Amino acid sequence: MRFPLNVLKKIADHLTKEKDRITVNISSLKSQDPFSDPDRLNDNAASDTDAKEEISHERMEALERELRLHMEEIKIALERIKKGTYGKCMSCKNMIDTDRLAVKPTALYCVSCERKREKR
Ligand SMILES: [Zn+2]
After folding, report:
1. 50-83 and 5-32 helices cross at what angle (nearest 10)?
2. CA of 68 to the centre of ligand 1 (A)
């Protein structure tokens, strides 16, 4: 079974938009990160705020990691749409449940293979 082209196109459009949104999010994260502020290095007097900045820097890094991970998933999904392998489980090669793909369009594994992977 293959997905009809119009469905694949819709998914690709959705994923491309999502990718653009993530790109914007990552760059806005970067502009909010106090560590990317060059003035900060000269600001030795403000030691009280250092701890606070540390936390937000870490949180931003975690957020950015998450966004980049999601970005990778989207890139893989788009690549699979191009190759015509979209929706096929990477492990058992069966078609992934369409309900699952509706919730998670970047899914690479069917539900049962995903569960097996999580157990490892
Ligand atoms: Zn599978």
Report:
1. 160
2. 25
CB neighbour list of residue 3: distance below 8 Å, 6 or more residues apart = 11, 86, 87
5 CA from centroid of ligand 1 (Å): 23
User: CA of 78: how far to CAs of 4, 18, 69, in Å?
Assistant: 15, 11, 14
User: Phi and psi for 15 in degrees, rounded to 5?
Assistant: -70, -35
Read off the pLDDT of each residue in 43-51 and give the average, rounded to a whole number. Answer: 56
Report the predicted TM-score, pTM, of the whole model to 2 decimal places: 0.78
* Average pLDDT of every residue of the chain: 87
Determine the Cα–Cα distance for residues 80 and 75; give it in Å rounded to an integer: 9
